[in-house]
Amino acid sequence: MKSSTSFRIAFVVALGATLLACAKQESRNQASMEAASPAAAAAPVADTAAEAAGGGLARTRSEAPDETQLTSSAATYTDAQRKFIRTAQANFRVQDVYQAALAIEDAVAAQGGFVTGNEIAADVQNTTRQSIGGGKLVELAEYTVRGELTVRVPSDKTQPFLRSIAKYMEFLDRRNFAAADAQFELLRQQLAYQRNQEAQQELGQAKDEGGKLGQKATVISARNEAKSSRDEALIAQKEFEDRVEFATLNLSLYQLPKLRRTEMTDMEAAVRDSGPGFFSRLGDSLSAGWFGLLEVVLVLIHLWPLWLALTLGWLALRALRRKRA
Q: By the 8 A CB rule, do 171 and 69 touch?
Protein backbone atom coordinates (compact mmCIF):
# COMPACT_ATOMS: atom_id res chain seq x y z
CA MET A 1 0.00 0.00 0.00
CA LYS A 2 2.83 2.38 0.89
CA SER A 3 4.67 1.56 -2.32
CA SER A 4 1.58 2.30 -4.36
CA THR A 5 1.15 5.68 -2.67
CA SER A 6 4.82 6.53 -3.16
CA PHE A 7 4.58 5.60 -6.81
CA ARG A 8 1.59 7.87 -7.27
CA ILE A 9 3.33 10.78 -5.58
CA ALA A 10 6.43 10.29 -7.71
CA PHE A 11 4.32 10.14 -10.86
CA VAL A 12 2.50 13.37 -9.99
CA VAL A 13 5.79 15.15 -9.22
CA ALA A 14 7.34 13.96 -12.50
CA LEU A 15 4.28 15.01 -14.47
CA GLY A 16 4.30 18.47 -12.86
CA ALA A 17 7.99 18.92 -13.61
CA THR A 18 7.43 17.91 -17.23
CA LEU A 19 4.52 20.35 -17.64
CA LEU A 20 6.54 23.16 -16.04
CA ALA A 21 9.48 22.54 -18.39
CA CYS A 22 7.19 22.52 -21.43
CA ALA A 23 5.58 25.79 -20.32
CA LYS A 24 8.99 27.48 -19.94
CA GLN A 25 10.13 26.23 -23.35
CA GLU A 26 6.93 27.51 -25.00
CA SER A 27 7.33 30.93 -23.36
CA ARG A 28 10.93 31.12 -24.65
CA ASN A 29 9.81 30.21 -28.18
CA GLN A 30 7.03 32.81 -28.05
CA ALA A 31 9.45 35.51 -26.90
CA SER A 32 11.88 34.58 -29.66
CA MET A 33 9.13 34.78 -32.26
CA GLU A 34 7.95 38.16 -30.96
CA ALA A 35 11.50 39.50 -31.03
CA ALA A 36 12.04 38.23 -34.54
CA SER A 37 8.72 39.50 -35.89
CA PRO A 38 9.65 43.24 -36.04
CA ALA A 39 12.91 42.41 -37.78
CA ALA A 40 11.12 40.10 -40.20
CA ALA A 41 8.46 42.73 -40.83
CA ALA A 42 11.04 45.46 -41.25
CA ALA A 43 13.06 43.42 -43.72
CA PRO A 44 10.42 43.42 -46.50
CA VAL A 45 9.80 47.12 -45.90
CA ALA A 46 13.50 47.84 -46.14
CA ASP A 47 13.78 45.65 -49.21
CA THR A 48 10.79 47.37 -50.78
CA ALA A 49 12.17 50.80 -49.96
CA ALA A 50 15.56 49.86 -51.31
CA GLU A 51 13.97 48.39 -54.41
CA ALA A 52 11.86 51.51 -54.91
CA ALA A 53 14.85 53.75 -54.37
CA GLY A 54 16.98 51.67 -56.65
CA GLY A 55 14.26 51.55 -59.29
CA GLY A 56 13.74 55.31 -59.11
CA LEU A 57 17.46 55.88 -59.36
CA ALA A 58 17.67 53.47 -62.28
CA ARG A 59 14.86 55.26 -64.06
CA THR A 60 16.46 58.64 -63.42
CA ARG A 61 19.78 57.42 -64.73
CA SER A 62 18.18 55.83 -67.77
CA GLU A 63 16.25 59.01 -68.60
CA ALA A 64 19.10 61.43 -67.98
CA PRO A 65 21.27 61.85 -71.09
CA ASP A 66 24.94 61.04 -71.00
CA GLU A 67 27.71 62.93 -72.75
CA THR A 68 27.62 60.64 -75.78
CA GLN A 69 24.14 61.88 -76.66
CA LEU A 70 25.56 65.40 -76.95
CA THR A 71 28.48 64.38 -79.14
CA SER A 72 28.74 64.90 -82.90
CA SER A 73 31.56 65.31 -85.38
CA ALA A 74 29.72 68.37 -86.67
CA ALA A 75 30.81 70.10 -83.47
CA THR A 76 34.41 68.85 -83.47
CA TYR A 77 35.59 68.36 -87.07
CA THR A 78 38.42 70.68 -88.10
CA ASP A 79 40.13 71.24 -91.44
CA ALA A 80 42.95 73.65 -92.12
CA GLN A 81 41.51 74.42 -95.58
CA ARG A 82 37.90 74.91 -94.50
CA LYS A 83 35.96 77.21 -92.22
CA PHE A 84 32.72 76.07 -90.57
CA ILE A 85 29.75 77.95 -89.17
CA ARG A 86 28.59 75.73 -86.31
CA THR A 87 25.07 75.82 -84.92
CA ALA A 88 23.24 73.58 -82.47
CA GLN A 89 19.76 73.25 -81.02
CA ALA A 90 18.71 71.23 -77.99
CA ASN A 91 15.40 70.75 -76.21
CA PHE A 92 15.57 69.11 -72.79
CA ARG A 93 13.90 68.84 -69.38
CA VAL A 94 15.54 70.14 -66.21
CA GLN A 95 14.62 70.05 -62.55
CA ASP A 96 14.32 73.83 -62.21
CA VAL A 97 14.44 76.14 -65.23
CA TYR A 98 15.65 79.23 -63.36
CA GLN A 99 18.51 77.43 -61.62
CA ALA A 100 19.48 75.56 -64.78
CA ALA A 101 19.51 78.79 -66.80
CA LEU A 102 21.89 80.42 -64.31
CA ALA A 103 24.12 77.33 -64.31
CA ILE A 104 24.20 77.29 -68.13
CA GLU A 105 25.17 80.97 -68.20
CA ASP A 106 28.04 80.19 -65.83
CA ALA A 107 29.11 77.31 -68.09
CA VAL A 108 29.04 79.66 -71.10
CA ALA A 109 31.27 82.15 -69.32
CA ALA A 110 33.65 79.37 -68.29
CA GLN A 111 34.14 78.45 -71.97
CA GLY A 112 34.81 82.06 -72.97
CA GLY A 113 31.38 82.63 -74.54
CA PHE A 114 28.47 84.97 -73.92
CA VAL A 115 24.67 84.92 -73.73
CA THR A 116 22.64 86.79 -76.36
CA GLY A 117 19.13 85.80 -75.21
CA ASN A 118 17.47 84.52 -72.03
CA GLU A 119 13.68 84.28 -71.90
CA ILE A 120 11.74 82.36 -69.24
CA ALA A 121 7.95 82.19 -68.99
CA ALA A 122 5.30 80.15 -67.16
CA ASP A 123 2.72 78.50 -69.40
CA VAL A 124 -0.59 77.96 -67.54
CA GLN A 125 -2.51 74.93 -68.87
CA ASN A 126 -5.51 74.36 -66.56
CA THR A 127 -7.19 76.64 -64.01
CA THR A 128 -9.93 75.65 -61.55
CA ARG A 129 -11.70 77.87 -59.01
CA GLN A 130 -13.74 76.66 -56.06
CA SER A 131 -15.45 78.43 -53.15
CA ILE A 132 -14.08 77.63 -49.70
CA GLY A 133 -16.52 79.78 -47.72
CA GLY A 134 -15.94 82.97 -45.82
CA GLY A 135 -16.09 85.02 -49.01
CA LYS A 136 -12.97 83.30 -50.36
CA LEU A 137 -12.09 81.40 -53.51
CA VAL A 138 -9.22 78.99 -54.03
CA GLU A 139 -7.67 78.87 -57.50
CA LEU A 140 -5.68 75.82 -58.57
CA ALA A 141 -3.56 76.33 -61.68
CA GLU A 142 -1.31 73.84 -63.45
CA TYR A 143 1.65 75.51 -65.10
CA THR A 144 4.91 74.65 -66.83
CA VAL A 145 7.99 76.87 -66.75
CA ARG A 146 9.85 77.09 -70.06
CA GLY A 147 13.05 78.88 -70.99
CA GLU A 148 14.74 79.87 -74.23
CA LEU A 149 18.48 80.59 -74.19
CA THR A 150 20.66 81.71 -77.09
CA VAL A 151 24.39 81.48 -76.38
CA ARG A 152 27.60 81.96 -78.32
CA VAL A 153 30.69 79.94 -77.47
CA PRO A 154 34.02 79.60 -79.28
CA SER A 155 33.62 77.13 -82.12
CA ASP A 156 36.26 74.76 -80.76
CA LYS A 157 34.57 74.84 -77.32
CA THR A 158 31.15 73.74 -78.54
CA GLN A 159 31.56 70.09 -77.59
CA PRO A 160 33.10 70.72 -74.14
CA PHE A 161 30.32 73.20 -73.37
CA LEU A 162 27.55 70.76 -74.28
CA ARG A 163 29.18 68.05 -72.20
CA SER A 164 29.44 70.39 -69.23
CA ILE A 165 25.68 71.09 -69.21
CA ALA A 166 24.62 67.44 -69.64
CA LYS A 167 24.48 67.06 -65.84
CA TYR A 168 21.61 69.56 -65.65
CA MET A 169 19.45 67.57 -68.08
CA GLU A 170 16.85 65.11 -66.80
CA PHE A 171 15.60 64.12 -70.23
CA LEU A 172 16.81 65.05 -73.72
CA ASP A 173 13.91 65.51 -76.15
CA ARG A 174 15.83 66.63 -79.22
CA ARG A 175 19.22 67.86 -80.31
CA ASN A 176 20.56 69.00 -83.66
CA PHE A 177 24.07 69.87 -84.84
CA ALA A 178 25.03 71.61 -88.07
CA ALA A 179 28.37 72.70 -89.53
CA ALA A 180 28.01 74.78 -92.69
CA ASP A 181 31.09 74.94 -94.90
CA ALA A 182 31.84 78.67 -95.09
CA GLN A 183 35.13 78.77 -96.98
CA PHE A 184 33.62 79.93 -100.29
CA GLU A 185 31.33 82.49 -98.72
CA LEU A 186 34.26 83.85 -96.74
CA LEU A 187 36.33 84.04 -99.93
CA ARG A 188 33.46 85.86 -101.65
CA GLN A 189 33.38 88.44 -98.85
CA GLN A 190 37.15 88.96 -99.05
CA LEU A 191 37.09 89.43 -102.84
CA ALA A 192 34.22 91.91 -102.58
CA TYR A 193 36.20 93.92 -100.05
CA GLN A 194 39.27 93.92 -102.30
CA ARG A 195 37.23 95.05 -105.31
CA ASN A 196 35.76 97.95 -103.40
CA GLN A 197 39.20 98.87 -102.08
CA GLU A 198 40.65 98.94 -105.61
CA ALA A 199 37.69 100.93 -106.93
CA GLN A 200 38.23 103.53 -104.24
CA GLN A 201 41.91 103.85 -105.12
CA GLU A 202 41.12 104.28 -108.83
CA LEU A 203 38.52 106.93 -108.09
CA GLY A 204 41.02 108.71 -105.85
CA GLN A 205 43.56 108.81 -108.68
CA ALA A 206 40.91 110.11 -111.11
CA LYS A 207 40.04 112.87 -108.66
CA ASP A 208 43.70 113.91 -108.30
CA GLU A 209 44.17 114.11 -112.07
CA GLY A 210 41.79 117.04 -112.23
CA GLY A 211 39.17 117.88 -114.83
CA LYS A 212 35.97 119.80 -115.07
CA LEU A 213 33.96 120.60 -111.97
CA GLY A 214 31.10 118.35 -113.09
CA GLN A 215 33.45 115.47 -113.68
CA LYS A 216 35.03 115.97 -110.26
CA ALA A 217 31.60 115.97 -108.62
CA THR A 218 30.73 112.71 -110.37
CA VAL A 219 34.05 111.17 -109.31
CA ILE A 220 33.56 112.31 -105.71
CA SER A 221 30.03 110.85 -105.63
CA ALA A 222 31.25 107.56 -107.11
CA ARG A 223 34.10 107.47 -104.61
CA ASN A 224 31.68 107.96 -101.70
CA GLU A 225 29.56 105.11 -102.99
CA ALA A 226 32.69 102.99 -103.31
CA LYS A 227 33.61 103.81 -99.70
CA SER A 228 30.12 102.85 -98.55
CA SER A 229 30.30 99.55 -100.45
CA ARG A 230 33.76 98.91 -99.04
CA ASP A 231 32.53 99.51 -95.50
CA GLU A 232 29.53 97.23 -96.00
CA ALA A 233 31.78 94.53 -97.44
CA LEU A 234 34.14 94.88 -94.48
CA ILE A 235 31.27 94.63 -91.99
CA ALA A 236 29.84 91.59 -93.77
CA GLN A 237 33.27 89.96 -93.73
CA LYS A 238 33.71 90.63 -90.01
CA GLU A 239 30.22 89.31 -89.25
CA PHE A 240 30.98 86.18 -91.24
CA GLU A 241 34.28 85.67 -89.45
CA ASP A 242 32.49 86.11 -86.12
CA ARG A 243 29.96 83.40 -87.04
CA VAL A 244 32.87 81.12 -87.91
CA GLU A 245 34.76 81.88 -84.71
CA PHE A 246 31.76 81.58 -82.36
CA ALA A 247 29.14 78.85 -82.60
CA THR A 248 25.49 79.74 -81.99
CA LEU A 249 23.45 77.44 -79.74
CA ASN A 250 19.70 77.64 -79.12
CA LEU A 251 18.67 75.85 -75.93
CA SER A 252 15.03 75.16 -74.98
CA LEU A 253 14.45 74.21 -71.34
CA TYR A 254 11.33 73.07 -69.53
CA GLN A 255 10.43 71.40 -66.25
CA LEU A 256 7.66 69.11 -65.05
CA PRO A 257 4.25 70.76 -64.50
CA LYS A 258 3.64 72.30 -61.09
CA LEU A 259 0.52 73.28 -59.14
CA ARG A 260 -0.13 76.82 -57.94
CA ARG A 261 -2.68 77.43 -55.15
CA THR A 262 -3.98 80.96 -54.67
CA GLU A 263 -6.67 82.25 -52.32
CA MET A 264 -8.66 85.26 -53.50
CA THR A 265 -11.85 87.17 -52.75
CA ASP A 266 -15.09 85.67 -54.05
CA MET A 267 -16.59 88.67 -55.86
CA GLU A 268 -19.93 86.97 -56.54
CA ALA A 269 -20.33 86.11 -52.86
CA ALA A 270 -19.31 89.65 -51.88
CA VAL A 271 -21.92 91.18 -54.21
CA ARG A 272 -24.54 88.73 -52.98
CA ASP A 273 -23.79 89.41 -49.32
CA SER A 274 -23.72 93.18 -49.73
CA GLY A 275 -27.08 93.24 -51.59
CA PRO A 276 -30.49 94.10 -50.00
CA GLY A 277 -32.24 91.62 -47.70
CA PHE A 278 -35.35 89.56 -48.37
CA PHE A 279 -37.91 91.95 -46.87
CA SER A 280 -36.36 94.91 -48.60
CA ARG A 281 -36.57 93.08 -51.92
CA LEU A 282 -40.17 92.02 -51.09
CA GLY A 283 -41.14 95.65 -50.51
CA ASP A 284 -39.47 96.68 -53.76
CA SER A 285 -41.34 93.92 -55.61
CA LEU A 286 -44.72 94.98 -54.15
CA SER A 287 -44.02 98.60 -54.98
CA ALA A 288 -42.98 97.71 -58.52
CA GLY A 289 -46.12 95.55 -58.93
CA TRP A 290 -48.40 98.37 -57.69
CA PHE A 291 -46.88 100.88 -60.06
CA GLY A 292 -47.18 98.32 -62.85
CA LEU A 293 -50.89 97.93 -62.11
CA LEU A 294 -51.36 101.70 -62.23
CA GLU A 295 -49.63 101.77 -65.59
CA VAL A 296 -52.06 99.13 -66.89
CA VAL A 297 -55.03 101.20 -65.67
CA LEU A 298 -53.67 104.29 -67.38
CA VAL A 299 -53.26 102.37 -70.64
CA LEU A 300 -56.86 101.12 -70.41
CA ILE A 301 -58.14 104.65 -69.74
CA HIS A 302 -56.11 105.89 -72.67
CA LEU A 303 -58.23 103.59 -74.88
CA TRP A 304 -61.59 105.10 -73.73
CA PRO A 305 -62.89 105.70 -77.32
CA LEU A 306 -62.65 101.98 -77.93
CA TRP A 307 -64.57 101.14 -74.78
CA LEU A 308 -67.23 103.78 -75.65
CA ALA A 309 -67.69 102.35 -79.14
CA LEU A 310 -67.98 98.83 -77.79
CA THR A 311 -70.57 99.96 -75.21
CA LEU A 312 -72.71 101.77 -77.81
CA GLY A 313 -72.56 98.79 -80.14
CA TRP A 314 -73.62 96.44 -77.35
CA LEU A 315 -76.59 98.72 -76.42
CA ALA A 316 -77.70 98.97 -80.07
CA LEU A 317 -77.52 95.19 -80.48
CA ARG A 318 -79.54 94.68 -77.31
CA ALA A 319 -82.25 97.16 -78.42
CA LEU A 320 -82.49 95.44 -81.80
CA ARG A 321 -83.04 92.05 -80.19
CA ARG A 322 -85.81 93.41 -77.94
CA LYS A 323 -87.59 95.02 -80.92
CA ARG A 324 -87.60 91.70 -82.80
CA ALA A 325 -88.88 89.88 -79.77
A: no
